[in-house]
């Protein structure tokens, strides 16, 4: 009886040891898998007190006008991009609700989560009602006057000393990340064009270099997407369409996948 009891104790110990090893191996593999997954930070532009570009949609029957904010559409698209990236990537948002988040705080998040790339989602606007199309910006220096006007809008929250500091930091970062940012922009823009250009009859405004502080401060390969013009009555109807938003978000996710496939090996950060 004593021998049988000793055997039972030994069997129990072995059983517990096997369970422990099984759990240890499982969680080790899970940790390695999570650690090796690329990290993407998706930034829905504006938010909170900052509406971004505004559109006014008229309803004749109800005799009312609805204000449409860039910040809301950007958040919807950003959440869809995040959904399409999971579970293959660790995808995060700089904001998940309608809240005010400063440029520096958005950029600091990239450092905190050690993001490999930074994607900022926006919508365009123009005083000219016929302004139309989608475009993709990547971090770099340039002398384009039209782009400088857009920069003034997107960089407006940085003033005085902070604007000077941001400019210095941007100059230091650009040479290091510009080539990768351009590759990222090229792949994303190609996928976006493939998904929405023909079906929604949108104008391709191309890929352009720009000095956006939110991209420079992120200190990693980054792009800023302009999905279309909220100031264009025909275009805003397309942008508000759920099918358009899904196809645009899927294109962005596919572009990100292609970027990481072409840039295998050690992460950039």
In short, what is this structure?
The protein has 269 residues and is of the alpha/beta class.
Radius of gyration: 23 Å
The secondary-structure class comes to alpha/beta
Number of helices: 8
Distance between the termini: 62 Å
| Quaternary | single chain
Order of helices and strands: HEEEHEHEEHHEHEHH
Could you explain the architecture of this structure?
The chain is α/β, with parallel strands linked by helices. The chain is 54% helix and 19% strand. The protein is built from 8 helices and 8 strands. The chain has helices at residues 2-36, 70-85, 103-112, 145-154, 160-200, 213-218, 233-239, 242-262; strands at 39-44, 54-59, 64-69, 90-93, 117-124, 134-139, 204-210, 222-229. The strands form 2 sheets. The chain has a 6-stranded mixed β-sheet with strand order 4-1-5-8-6-7, sandwiched between helices. Strands 2-3 form a two-stranded antiparallel ribbon. Helix 2 packs across helix 8 and helix 5 (160-200) crosses helix 8. The protein starts with a helix and ends in a 7-residue tail after the last helix.
